[in-house]
Prior knowledge:
By secondary structure, the chain is an alpha+beta fold. The chain has 5 helices and 4 strands. It is globular and about 40 Å long.
Amino acid sequence: MDPPNTxxxxxxxxxxxxxxxxxxxxxxxxxxxxxxxxxxxxxHHSKPGHERKDKPGSSSxxxxxxxxxxxxxxxxxxxxxxxxxxxxxxxxxxATTRSAxxxxxxxxREEIDSGKTRFEEAxxxxxxxxxxxxGGDLGSFGRGKMQKPFEDAAFALKVxxxxxxxxxxxxxxxxxxxx
Length: 179
């Protein structure tokens, strides 16, 4: 017979119980103003240093291909976000056609190819992405972290190879695979 005021459980003594999710009234999971603990999975790129790290030798890390790349982004009037560090109000971006952005990027690519400038220097000077401060370095990323055209181009490159112009919802890019 059990002592009074005890509750029987089917759980083993080592199993821990989880508290019920908080409700909207107490600032929990369903409260839109509550802090989110999940990473924001951007469709363009994630912040370097915030990649998910699996344990070495685990099946998910050994099956997962990761690349490291840098890029130069030129935004235009068709870009999904018409502001950048260079143009916070989006005045220049809103007036830039897609073809003008592609021409500018092609000129930058030719300067890099000719040795007139280095990729990192061109990214720091011309890129509309905040990665300009790191010479365009996006860090490492796996499949499903970038917009599909960007991802496909980055994974198709060999280390040290630079892409042709890649068009995404963010704008037009050239990508340099660094690992």
